[in-house]
């Protein structure tokens, strides 16, 4: 401990550090040096050999100069090799460089090493040293007088030094805090690096496990494909054998049928000819016999009459002779006889005429007989011709049979060749797929290898960073130890011969460096908080630092040298390190991303190919108006969709729609329109609408096709908005590529003065109605539809307001554009009575069926009848769902394959709400249309906005599992106030309402049934086991 030499002053004086000097100095020089050191605050050199008395005198001298009381120095004090003495304004105490023990009054004290100020280049000229090694106990003291002004100046200088020292202490505290923060951050970086290393190793292990799993799956798939290939070969051979057998049986059956038909035809011709000849002969015989018999009878009657007349004439002649002889007048008798003769003559003439008539009749009958003979000969000729034809038919049938046999043989050979080619193609495809799988495996291996390399390089980088951080930590530790050594006035072995002392920039060195646990405690507890009292007391024991040099020139000429420690921003950090261009790790990452994209594209292609293979012929076969018959349409917009970039938003939902089981998406009207919703089109070839640009539309359609979805375009063919006014101010002149005039508008449109023909349908009053009877109009529309189909990518049409023009024109447009699917909007009012819906809606559905007939049956139509009936039927009036014939009451019951069922669309629902479906009955409505025949349509708002996505997806899955399509039969078991029960197809049963029913209670329902969906009183579904 230092010896107290005064009170009231706290500022330390400069530090003296010298080697022992020669004993030849005299007291005068000592007094002068002491006087000058006291005034200039410079260290004093004390020669070796000065005794205790001399030391005491020197101390008294110092005290007198400082105007302080004289300290008492005990004579019992013995210091071993005291090399330095500190002269303070407050204390004077010896300092031992080699940490020797100083004894005073029997107490052992450990002297602290104190840094000293360096004022010269050598020990001889820089300071004076007080040394009491000679053991002199003279006890003399001298007092050097000083000027009081100089003492005041000295005090002022000491006050300034004290203020600068306070500033240096604050700066030191800041530097200590920065050092603690930097070390904490360094430890945090080390922990982060170790954590990243562990994560990288874990990811590497997971990637290896995933790669092994995928490799096993690929090997299993390979074996499955090989087994499938073998089975396919066997199936192909069996199929070829069965085809040969069937061909032989079909050939035999066909030839036998042909021969039997020919024989039957010949025998039928012969019997017909014989029957005709027999009938003619009978007719001739009957006619001649009747005629001759009538003639004979008439002649007999005439002869009898003539004989009777002759007899009466003979009687009369006898009477006349008697009268004459009796002298009577015979004239009267003669007259009577003459009259009778005349009558007889007339009778004879009549008989002759009848004979002539009968002869004519006989001639006619002879002619008819000859004609009959001619007919018989003609029939015979026909029979002979038939025989010839039969023989020719036999020969031709033989030739045809031989030709057919050859064709069958060639067909079988072709089938065999096709099977061989298919087998080769399948094997090639399998090889290609195996190669692709191998390539994918190799790519996966390569990716895994790249990952391993990347992880190894990352680990190496982490290790390098750890080593760098450890080296930096070691450097910090070394610098801290150096600073601590400097603070404790110790010098490292390499610095024993150096004369430079260093000033530490800051740090709580003892607290950080004494024990590692304290370091971790500092790192875990966070940055430095307020210094507790005990630490402040410990820190107060350290000596103060000299003032910091702020001027560059002053710092250059200063004898103090600061440690050149790096700033916090200059310390390397892996968290802030960014990959550089050309870095191998970055190239590996980019290559990995490319490989991952190729792998995903290959998986999508394989998945689409697998789905295509799994489709049945019924699902692939397309028919006009209904496609495959298994379509499920999604209306992909509502009345407010134009307010967004809708094509981009809808394209992002393509994958989700495909996963849900939807097969076709109905897109909004694509053309430029006066109304933002698109239903008032103007320039048909301008596809930049409120829904998006033409490029965005193409992108949307491509996304639909990538997910195997049909894209249906909403085309408005009934009306079109004009671009210009006519000279009389009527908007009836069109612009764009289809620059039509008033001749393209129907003449009975009351608002637009058209020059065309009368309309073939209803008038739409908001825009000019197009005259489809004009050849140029139909030609332009056909070209436009083909442009949409081929260049833009649409697959089918939704036709707006088809009541405005005849169905024959729709047929022409569909035949020209050949869509996969077409729907017509024929919206007509249902029949109501007293505000209530009528049960019989046959007239309404008949009008829709008539329009479908007008299109030739190649277009479907919305089943507005079923929608209207469901509005009332689902409110405990389920009896409305069955007609008197036991069929569904909508268009579905009459023509299900051309029926498109729906609950709401952009007109009936959305923000327009012209005819909204009951909100609480939506689930029952979708349960009905998604399980019944026809093509169901799902509205966008219901699927995404009303929270019905999961329910609708479940119903779609049940429709798919049961194999329901547009022609599935419906057998209705119950339809009353309590509920509705029907079997659709062979494998699905639906129940709506509160009816207490299950398949086991139905006598006429065969099979075992499992409940698939149970929504309580709303609906229940069963699938056949």
From TrEMBL:
GO molecular function: alpha-amylase activity; calcium ion binding
Highest taxon, organism lineage: Eukaryota
Protein's recorded name: alpha-amylase
Disordered: region residues: 113-141
Catalytic activity as recorded in UniProt: Endohydrolysis of (1->4)-alpha-D-glucosidic linkages in polysaccharides containing three or more (1->4)-alpha-linked D-glucose units
EC main group: hydrolase
InterPro entries in alphabetical order: A-amylase_bs_C, GH, GH13_cat_dom, Glyco_hydro_b
Domain Alpha-amylase C-terminal beta-sheet stretches: 960-1024
Keywords annotated in UniProt: Carbohydrate metabolism, Coiled coil, Glycosidase, Hydrolase
Organism: Coffea arabica
Domain Glycosyl hydrolase family 13 catalytic: from-to ranges: 631-959
Similarity comment text for this entry: Belongs to the glycosyl hydrolase 13 family.
Cofactor: Ca(2+)
Comp. bias regions, Polar residues: 114-125
The enzyme's E.C. designation: 3.2.1.1
């Amino acid at each position: 401990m230092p010896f107290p030499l005064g009170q009231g002053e706290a500022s330390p004086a400069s530090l003296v550090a010298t080697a022992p000097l020669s004993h030849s100095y005299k007291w005068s020089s000592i007094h002068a040096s002491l006087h000058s050191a006291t005034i200039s605050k410079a260290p004093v050199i004390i020669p070796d050999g000065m005794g205790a008395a001399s030391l005491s005198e020197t101390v008294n001298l110092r005290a007198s100069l400082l105007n302080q009381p004289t300290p008492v120095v005990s004579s019992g004090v013995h210091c071993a090799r005291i090399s330095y003495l500190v002269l303070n304004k407050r204390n004077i105490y010896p300092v031992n460089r080699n940490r020797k023990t100083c004894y005073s009054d029997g107490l052992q004290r450990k002297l602290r090493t104190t840094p000293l100020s360096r004022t010269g280049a050598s020990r001889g000229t820089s300071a004076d040293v007080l040394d009491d090694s000679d053991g002199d106990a003279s006890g003399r003291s001298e007092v050097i007088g000083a000027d009081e002004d100089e003492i005041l100046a000295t005090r002022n200088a000491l006050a300034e030094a004290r203020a600068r020292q306070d500033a240096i202490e604050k700066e030191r505290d800041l530097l200590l805090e920065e050092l603690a923060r930097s070390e904490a951050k360094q430890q945090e970086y080390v922990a982060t690096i170790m954590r990243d290393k562990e994560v990288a190793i874990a990811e590497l292990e997971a990637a290896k496990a995933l790669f092994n799993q995928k490799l096993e799956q690929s090997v299993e798939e390979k074996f499955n494909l090989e087994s499938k290939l073998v089975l396919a070969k066997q199936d192909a051979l069996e199929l070829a054998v069965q085809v040969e057998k069937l061909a032989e049986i079909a050939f035999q059956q066909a030839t036998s049928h042909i021969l039997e038909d020919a024989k039957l035809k010949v025998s039928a011709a012969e019997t017909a000819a014989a029957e005709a000849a027999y009938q003619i002969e009978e007719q001739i015989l009957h006619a001649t016999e009747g005629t001759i018999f009538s003639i004979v009878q008439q002649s007999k009657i005439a002869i009898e009459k003539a004989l009777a007349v002759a007899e009466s004439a003979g009687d009369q002649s006898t009477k006349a002779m008697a009268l004459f002889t009796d002298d009577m007048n015979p004239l009267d008798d003669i007259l009577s006889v003459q009259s009778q003769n005349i009558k007889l003559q007339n009778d004879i003439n009549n008989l002759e005429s009848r004979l002539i008539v009968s002869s004519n009749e006989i001639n006619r009958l002879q002619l008819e007989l000859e004609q009959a003979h001619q007919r018989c000969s003609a029939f015979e000729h026909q029979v002979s011709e038939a025989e010839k034809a039969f023989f020719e038919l036999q020969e031709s049938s033989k030739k045809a049979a031989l030709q057919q046999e050859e064709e069958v043989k060639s067909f079988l050979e072709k089938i065999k060749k096709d099977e061989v080619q298919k087998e080769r193609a399948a094997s090639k495809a399998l090889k290609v797929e195996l190669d692709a799988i191998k390539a994918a495996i190799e790519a996966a291996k390569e990716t895994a290898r790249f990952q391993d390399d990347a992880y190894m390089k990352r680990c190496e980088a982490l290790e390098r960073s750890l080593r760098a951080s450890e080296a930096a930590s070691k450097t910090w530790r070394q610098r801290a130890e150096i600073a601590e050594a400097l603070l404790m006035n110790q010098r490292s072995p390499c610095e024993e011969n150096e004369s430079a002392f260093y000033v530490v920039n800051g740090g709580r060195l003892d607290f950080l460096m004494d024990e590692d646990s304290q370091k971790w405690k500092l790192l875990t507890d966070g940055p430095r908080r307020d210094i507790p009292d005990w630490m402040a007391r410990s820190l107060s024991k350290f000596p103060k630092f000299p003032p910091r040099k702020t001027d560059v020139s002053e710092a250059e000429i200063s004898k103090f040298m600061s440690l050149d420690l790096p700033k916090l921003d200059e310390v390397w950090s892996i968290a802030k390190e960014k990959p550089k261009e050309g870095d191998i790790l970055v190239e590996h990452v980019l290559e990995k991303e490319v490989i991952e994209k190729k792998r995903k594209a290959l998986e999508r292609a394989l998945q689409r190919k697998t789905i295509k293979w799994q489709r049945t012929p019924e699902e692939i076969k397309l028919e006009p108006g209904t496609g495959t018959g298994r379509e499920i349409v999604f209306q992909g917009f509502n009345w407010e969709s134009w307010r967004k970039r809708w094509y981009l938003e809808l394209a992002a939902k393509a994958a989700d729609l495909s996963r849900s089981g939807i097969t076709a998406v109905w897109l909004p009207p694509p053309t430029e329109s006066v109304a933002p919703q698109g239903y008032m089109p103007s320039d048909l070839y301008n596809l930049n609408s409120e829904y998006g640009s033409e490029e965005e539309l193409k992108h949307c359609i491509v996304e639909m096709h990538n997910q195997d979805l049909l894209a249906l375009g909403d085309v408005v063919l009934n009306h079109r908005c004009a671009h210009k006014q006519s000279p009389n101010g009527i908007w009836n002149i069109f612009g764009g590529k289809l620059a039509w005039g008033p001749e393209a508008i129907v003449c009975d449109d009351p608002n637009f003065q058209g020059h065309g023909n009368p309309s073939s349908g209803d008038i739409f009053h908001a825009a000019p109605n197009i005259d489809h009877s004009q050849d140029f109009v139909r030609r332009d529309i056909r070209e436009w539809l083909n442009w949409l189909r081929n260049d833009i990518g649409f697959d089918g049409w939704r036709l707006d307001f088809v009541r405005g023009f005849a169905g024959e024109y729709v047929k022409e447009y569909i035949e020209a554009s050949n869509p996969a699917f077409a729907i017509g909007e024929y919206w007509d009012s249902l029949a109501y009575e007293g505000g209530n819906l009528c049960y019989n809606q046959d007239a309404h559905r008949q009008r829709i069926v008539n329009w479908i007939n007008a299109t030739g049956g190649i277009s479907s139509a919305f089943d507005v009848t079923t929608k209207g009936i469901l509005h009332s039927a689902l409110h405990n009036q389920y009896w409305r769902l069955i007609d008197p014939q036991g069929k569904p009451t909508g268009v579905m019951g009459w023509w299900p394959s051309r029926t498109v069922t729906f609950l709401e669309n952009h007109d009936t629902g959305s923000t327009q709400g012209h005819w909204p479906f009951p909100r609480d009955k939506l689930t029952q409505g979708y349960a009905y249309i998604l399980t019944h025949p026809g093509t169901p349509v799902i509205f966008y708002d219901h699927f995404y906005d009303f929270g019905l996505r999961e329910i609708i997806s479940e119903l779609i899955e049940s429709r798919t599992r049961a194999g329901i399509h547009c022609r599935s039969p419906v057998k209705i078991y119950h339809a009353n106030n309590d509920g509705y029960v029907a079997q659709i197809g062979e494998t699905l049963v639906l129940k709506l309402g509160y009816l207490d029913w299950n398949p086991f209670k139905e006598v006429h329902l065969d099979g075992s049934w499992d409940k698939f969906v149970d929504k309580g009183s709303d609906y229940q579904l069963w699938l056949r086991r």
